[in-house]
Design brief:
With about 400 residues, the chain is of the alpha/beta class. The protein folds into two domains: about 180 residues, Rossmann fold; about 210 residues, CoaB-like (Rossmann fold, 3-Layer(aba) Sandwich), CATH 3.40.50.10300. The chain is about 35% helix and about 25% strand. The strands form five sheets. It has an eight-stranded mixed β-sheet with strand order 13-12-9-14-17-18-19-20, with helices on both faces. The two termini are about 25 Å apart. The chain binds cytidine-5'-triphosphate. The site of cytidine-5'-triphosphate (CTP) has 14 residues, from helix 11 and strand 17.
């Protein structure tokens, strides 16, 4: 799988640089074309000559050491690379990358590349757990960089804990698995709805719900990283998304979401309706702020359109996935929605369970397809749940074609 792959190996300065030598050798043995780029501090641990001999390519260190006058080396390497692996990645390089700092050849090249970037951190256990490093890693993860978690064990600084560079073979396995997944949904158009809707009463008041949109956004990011072209219809949420394959359409009310979903529906292959759409909206709305009156105030509500139901009734070849947020009889209610709304699959979550539902970074769900095969997905990050569900959707679409 790595045969002839153009891999940029970024080596930053930590004791684990010695493992990067082995990683270079193993990548070359698997047929990859490896170019190594070192930071100044990395060269204090291992001589560039070692990497040159192992990769059989020049090693890059200094941005201004231009070997070929016809090219600008950092842009040339940035464009050349299909995969970039930073191993070991120190706290310093992780933090610099998360701020877009480009003050040496490696950081400059990484800023310029469109390659898939894999980061294998290695540092002291307390540095790894520091909120600044954690925050910066989260930021990079959001931007689509892939982390290869450090292992736990004896660290060169004398501590035992998390921070040890993952073993070279495990790094290669992680990259290969990810590259395989990166093709999983290539050529597929996925339409996702996320977040709550907001049903306005007057210019300062509205009805809404506790959805934060995190599950839907996790779907969008996971689908894009699997190679899909994503359209994300988002209700009012406080989330950002950055991926060239994600087109975001912001909406406010259930009616706006209905219109946006139908506009995009015809060209979609897969539709995932994770939004928490309001079932009711105020019958009367006011352009001016309502003044309080003595006594009770009764708001008369009318039904919104059930978007998922309408898509299920009108669908052609789309693979339609709904959500069911339940607090009791979850499987029974979920299966009913699967059938009544003509879905291809449903994702049921018990929003009352610890670690599941609104506002959490994690979820616990059950995926049920049309054949009523059940897959229980235990507590995991929403991103991980999204990846597992997309893999199941891909499996079920393939089965349907056969
Ligand atoms: N849904 C929708 N339009 C609505 C209401 C819900 O598209 N007006 C979709 C949601 O996006 C979700 C699914 O329907 O994919 C189930 O939503 P949920 O709130 O769990 O159930 P409801 O269908 O509203 O049923 P009930 O309120 O009876 O549980």
């Amino acid at each position: 799988m790595l045969q002839n792959k153009k891999i940029l190996l970024g080596v930053s300065g930590g004791i684990a640089v010695y493992k990067a030598c082995d990683l270079t050798s193993k990548l070359v043995q698997q047929g990859a074309d490896v170019r190594v780029m070192m930071t100044e501090s990395a060269t204090k641990f291992v001589s560039p000559l070692t990497f040159q001999a192992l990769s059989r390519n020049d090693v890059y260190i200094d941005t201004f050491d231009e070997k070929d006058p016809r090219k600008i080396a950092h842009i040339d390497v940035a464009d050349w690379a299909e995969i970039a692996i930073i191993a070991p990645a120190t706290a310093n390089i992780i933090s610099k990358l998360s701020y877009g700092i480009a003050d040496d050849m490696l950081t400059t090249t990484l800023l310029a590349t469109r390659a898939d970037v894999y980061i294998a951190p290695a540092m002291n256990v307390h540095m790894y757990a520091h909120p600044a490093v954690m925050e910066n890693m989260k930021k990079l993860d959001k931007w689509g960089h892939h982390f290869i978690e450090p292992g736990a064990g004896y660290l060169a600084c004398g501590y035992v804990g998390k921070g040890r560079l993952e073993e070279p073979l495990s790094i290669i396995e992680a990259v290969k698995n990810h590259q395989k997944n990166a093709q999983l949904l290539s050529g597929k158009k996925i339409l996702i709805s996320a977040g709550p809707t907001r049903e306005v009463v007057d210019p300062v008041r509205f009805f809404s719900n506790r959805s934060t949109g995190r599950m839907g956004f996790a779907f969008a990011e996971a689908a894009a990283s699997f190679g899909a072209e994503v359209t994300l219809v988002a209700g009012p949420v406080e989330l950002d998304v950055h991926h060239p394959n994600i087109k975001r359409i912001d909406v406010v009310s259930a009616q706006d979401m209905y219109d946006a979903m139908w506009k995009e529906f015809a060209s979609a292959d897969i539709v995932i309706k994770s939004a928490a759409v309001a079932d009711y909206r105020p019958k009367a709305t006011y352009d001016e702020k309502m003044k309080k009156q003595p006594g009770e105030y009764v708001v008369e509500m009318e039904r919104t359109q059930d978007i998922l139901q309408s898509l299920g009734d009108g669908k052609k070849s789309q693979f339609l996935v709904g959500f069911a947020a339940e607090t009791s009889n979850i499987l029974e209610y979920g299966q009913k929605k699967l059938k009544n709304k003509h879905l291809d699959a449903i994702v049921i979550n018990d929003v009352s369970a610890e670690g599941a539902g609104f506002g959490h970074d994690t979820n616990i769900v059950t995926y049920i397809n049309k054949q009523l095969n059940k897959e229980e997905l235990p507590l995991a990050s929403k991103r991980n749940i999204a990846e597992q569900i997309l893999t199941l959707i891909q499996r079920d679409m393939k089965d349907e074609r056969q």
